[in-house]
Amino acid sequence: MTDSFTTPLSYIQNYLAAAHDLPLADLSGTRTFESLDLDSIAQVEMFVTISDHYRIHLDDSLASADMTLSQTAEMVEQALRERPATSHRDSAAETHAPAAVRP
Amino acid sequence: MSHRPVSVISGVGSCLPGRVIGNRDEPLASLDTTDEWIRSRTGIESRRWVEPGTSTGDLAVDAARSALRRAGRPVVDLVVLATTTPDHHSPATAPAVAARLGLGTVPAFDVSAACSGFTYALAAGDAWVRAGTAQCVLVVAAETLSTITDPSDRGTAVVFADGAGAVVLRAGSSHEPGAIVATSLGSDGTQDDLAVVRAGGSRWPDHAGESSLADRCLRMRGPQMFSHAVRRMTASSRALLEEVGWPVDSVGAFIGHQANQRILDKVADLVGVRAEARFGNIREVGNTSSASIPLVMDDLVARQAVTPGTRTLFTAFGGGATWGSVALSWPLIKEHE
């Protein structure tokens, strides 16, 4: 479902609709996570999913219940602008030292 | 063609204490929570806690005895025990376990890598076999987390549990079911406050007795732990699969550390593990830290739920922070009297 979304907000809206069975029409950019009755873990799940999709690092310590979907999308856009040439996934793999692989 | 030895899993065993604590049972019933809250946040419906007086070493001995029996009671020349809850600060628990099992004076040591402990211990045992230093290694992961759990702390009391699992490694060939294909470990000490017992160590021995029960028990930063666990286990799994050249849809058995069902689901989704390849027992057993992977493994062996030779991936994340993954083929475990 990932490549057809033109904006981070669209991705977030569609992710929430699919993951939490929410009507897409109810997911305007001004909605807060609290108003959607999503718990703190749901917000972290979303941040991790977005980070993985866009290969960016989103600081989930900045997540809060009163954050809107548009504000979250702005965080993504900011991270995309600041994204280094090496992707997040590549960076994660670099820190993961293989211990032993059979020949 | 390489003639270097490969380690092969030849025995699996486990031990769960008999005391079952459901979400509606005391002491959880006195917490500011509900069965529905616990299930929706963690996926856990019940967990096992030891009775007072039962130690990690006791569980380890029972699990190891079962694994050794299934392996045909081989001559063991190394014991590695992963635990966060040793019987004592000092000495290590592994030598006493080895002695109680009648294994004589073999080398025996503990591994402290929190919930990743089994992957670390398995990697250590595998390395001894590959190096030719050992022919047969007993790897045990055992925990009595209830002994470092504050029953009034909702964030940990509903999650942590007790249990032990064990595997026997022997020197063999890479074509055998049960062969360890690759291991990969990592750590990030900048995240050492994700899950910590503050009092009782050299940093704060607390000889004056100023610490509270909360200080002497495991505290966890839940949302932060969730985030780091998902990111690290996902990256570790992907990196190891790439290393061994396995397409993810060729993995027939995926066992993640049973930390939280939502963590397990997210990791499996991001890695792309097929639904039918995902195995776990957190609903009935809770989070048993390092013991969780071999506990799932033993349950699957008992139910013959996985075909020997199936491509298998373990992945774990724990306090420290530590993480590890293991690629192996599913073992053929024979029953011995």
Structural description of this entry:
The complex is a heterodimer of chains A (103) and B (337). Chain A is mainly alpha-helical and 103 residues long. Chain A has one domain: Non-ribosomal Peptide Synthetase Peptidyl Carrier Protein, Chain A (Orthogonal Bundle), CATH 1.10.1200. Chain A is 48% helix and 4% strand. The longest helix of chain A is centred in the middle third of the chain and has 15 residues. About 10% of the residues of chain A have low confidence. In chain B, helix 2 crosses helix 3 and helix 7 packs parallel to helix 8. Chain B has a single domain, classed as Peroxisomal Thiolase, Chain A, domain 1 (3-Layer(aba) Sandwich). Chain B is built from 10 helices and 13 strands. The two termini of chain B are 37 Å apart. Chains A and B meet through helix 2, helix 4 and strand 1 of A and helix 4, strand 8, helix 7 and helix 8 of B.
Topology:
The complex is a heterodimer of chains A (103) and B (337).
Chain A (H helix, E strand, L loop, with lengths): L7 H13 L19 H15 L14 H14 L5 H7 L3 E4 L2
Helix pairs in contact in A: 1-3
Chain B lengths: L5 E10 L3 E4 L12 H8 L3 E4 L6 H15 L7 E5 L11 H7 L7 E4 L5 H14 L5 E9 L9 H4 L4 E11 L7 E8 L7 E3 L15 H4 L1 E3 L1 H23 L8 E4 L4 H11 L10 H4 L6 H11 L8 E8 L3 E8 L8
Parallel strand pairs in B: 4-5, 4-6, 11-12
Antiparallel strand pairs in B: 1-7, 2-3, 6-7, 8-13, 9-10, 12-13
Helix pairs in contact in B: 2-3, 7-8
Features:
heterodimer, A: 103 residues, mainly alpha, Non-ribosomal Peptide Synthetase Peptidyl Carrier Protein, Chain A, 4 helices, B: 337 residues, alpha/beta, Peroxisomal Thiolase, Chain A, domain 1, five-stranded mixed β-sheet, four-stranded mixed β-sheet, 10 helices, 13 strands, globular
